[in-house]
Amino acid sequence: MHYSILIGGLLLGTFLLSAKSLEGTWIPPSAIFMVALYFHGIHAPLLYDDLGAINAGNLESVLNYALLAQFAFLLGYSIVGYMALVRAKRALAAPSSEPLLDDQGVVIAGAVAVVLVLYGQAYAYLTGALDLGKGAFAYEASGSIFYRFATFGLLVPSLLLALVMSIPFHARTSLKFRQRFSFILSICALFLLTSLLSFERSQMVKFLLFASIYYHYRVKPISVAGVIYLGILVFVIQAFSSLRVLGTGILGISSGDMFDELTSDKDYFTGILVAIPGQEVLAEVMDIVPYSEPFKYGATYFDSFVGLFLPRALGLSDYENIKTPAYWFKEVFAWGTTGHGFDFSLLAEAYLNFGSYGIFVIPLIIGGIIFKLSTNIRKSNSLLLVAFSITTLISITFALRSDSNTLFKSVVYLFLPIYLVYKIQPRPVPTSMANR
């Protein structure tokens, strides 16, 4: 067994002990990022029999950097956590001080979500996108600005999450809870089914993760059976997303081909782990920087912030002047590649900007931020702050396989519609009344 698996495991165990002391629970929301960071670090030694499958020259350095990032995250998390303990006593999660959606708001938001889901699926069908394996929520499926905005992981998931948040905190036995829960569940099931048939994975996983975190920490703890059901659903999503390799959409796949692909000799568990990027990107960046390309010294973070105001989904990105980390990597590592983008890595971007120091400083800062997010999720009396914290936590976690550009946009574009839904509703219902 490789040393990075053992040392990373010790750091993960130390984090859980710290979480119990600082947040009062063994499994706080912050554990999601730490677990993902651990698998990020042990990706290569866990999945490859031949570690030469990735850049052998940088392998030891990359594995050591992964451990350094775990240690820095733990340190930042612990420092901010202990400072918080000094300032205030622990408190249980309180009902939101902000209003829930009223019945009319729930129906309107649900109806709009259903219309957009069906519109996206119909548009993809009429344009032949489904025949090409580009589903209703795929960015490449259409050139329509409205279509991109409505379906490219922006508006629909946000509307559904706003509905999930409208479930009263402490009214699980009330008729209102059962009615709302059934209504919201049926709409979410339609979105998941549509995404599944479109071979979509990323948006479904983000949606399920947000809904699960919110429900578990603010409505009702998810039972062991619920965790098993969610695990089965994730495996189903992974299996269906593998149908992309057939090179056609769901409408062009015969039942026989689908059965053969789904029952082929595949390790879907490994596939899920591979979805958490390993050391390949960082190894390649270390080959390039600073020998062929200089350090960026924070420029990629600034460009990513500017990119917030130039969303690609609306056709406004200025790649000539604003090069995101993933775009930079594509140009340097595989110049001239067309038809798809490149994944990147939070740690690779930290190295790209500040070298070895970045591998320590960026996770250190993230550790403190995630402690605050985790505390907000469990204890805040602001419904919108809870939503913002969950969105940010998920976006930072997914940044392990993307860059700051995607991170910033994920937070803003996913949270902004939720914020608008709750602020524009015409007749807000105080939480105390909704829970009666």
Summed up:
The chain has helices spanning 3-23, 31-47, 59-87, 103-126, 145-151, 155-165, 175-197, 202-219, 224-241, 255-262, 268-274, 280-288, 299-307, 325-333, 346-354, 356-379, 383-398, 404-424, 431-434. By secondary structure, it is an all-alpha fold.
Write the layout of secondary structure elements.
Blueprint: H1 3-23, H2 31-47, H3 59-87, H4 103-126, H5 145-151, H6 155-165, H7 175-197, H8 202-219, H9 224-241, H10 255-262, H11 268-274, H12 280-288, H13 299-307, H14 325-333, H15 346-354, H16 356-379, H17 383-398, H18 404-424, H19 431-434
Helix pairs in contact: 1-2, 1-3, 2-3, 2-17, 3-16, 4-6, 4-7, 6-7, 6-8, 6-18, 8-17, 12-15, 13-18, 15-16, 16-17, 17-18
Assembly of the depicted chains: single chain
Give the overall shape, derived from the CA principal axes.
globular
Give the DSSP E fraction (strand runs of 2 or more residues). under 5%
DSSP strand tally:
0
Helix content: 55-70%
Rg computed from alpha carbons, rounded to a whole number of angstroms? 22 Å
Describe the structure.
The chain has about 425 residues and is an all-alpha fold. The chain has a domain at about 105-270 and about 425-435. Helices cover about 65% and strands about 0% of the residues. It has 19 helices and no strands. Helix 2 (about 30-45) packs antiparallel against helix 3, helix 4 runs antiparallel to helix 6 and helix 13 (about 300-305) runs parallel beside helix 18 (about 405-425). The radius of gyration is 22 Å and the shape is globular. Residues about 90-95, about 140-145 and about 425-435 have low confidence and may be disordered.
